[in-house]
Specification:
6 helices, mainly alpha, 51% helix
Length: 179
């Protein structure tokens, strides 16, 4: 039996609003005014890369490309930064699965499994992109409702009606109350 006491960790103070951290020099990478956040996010994205078979020069290119990809997505806030990092990671993982599926010596089962994983990752990527666009407001529909009077025996058309053959005025322009 050991007489040794378990190690105790002294409590640490976490500074939530460090003025030196809130300069936002790296905001284009992670979307935050916090450079600690942006660095952490960039590190998470690059650590998701498969670089085992890469030489030093190729690894540096992959790391630089990953950070450039984050900047290219251009996150505007922390949520967009997280989605951007996941987009990059899902893309890289999918491409690695596609690469593995095409190895010449690959078994049929190995090829099928890699293609299945690549397919799942590609669908995840598309879902993330849709979520990012929704967050940015690009996926919203615009509906304009205008006041319309339809008297007894009358008919109404909602939408723009064009005459066959193009040209000419639209049917709504011929109506005296339409604009």
């Amino acid at each position: 039996m050991s007489t040794r006491k378990p190690a105790t960790h002294a409590p640490k103070t976490v500074l939530a609003d460090d003025p030196d951290d809130r300069k936002g020099r790296l905001k284009t990478i992670g979307g935050s005014q916090s450079d600690h956040w942006n660095n952490t996010l960039a590190n998470q994205a690059v650590q998701a890369l498969w670089v085992k078979n890469s030489d030093a020069q190729e690894r540096d290119r992959q790391l630089s490309a990953t950070v450039a990809g984050l900047a290219g997505i251009g996150p505007k806030d922390e949520l967009e930064g997280m989605m951007a990092a996941q987009l990059v990671a899902a893309h890289n993982a999918a491409m690695e699965c596609y690469r593995r599926a095409m190895i010449g010596e690959q078994t049929f089962e190995g090829r099928r499994e890699n293609l299945n994983q690549a397919n799942k990752l590609s669908r995840t990527w598309a879902t993330l992109l849709e979520a990012l666009n929704r967050h940015r407001g690009k996926g919203q529909q615009k509906v304009t409702v205008e006041h319309v009077h339809v008297h007894a025996g009358g008919q109404a058309v909602v939408g723009t009606i064009e005459r066959p053959g193009g040209g000419g005025r639209t049917k709504t322009e011929e109506q005296p109350h339409a604009k």
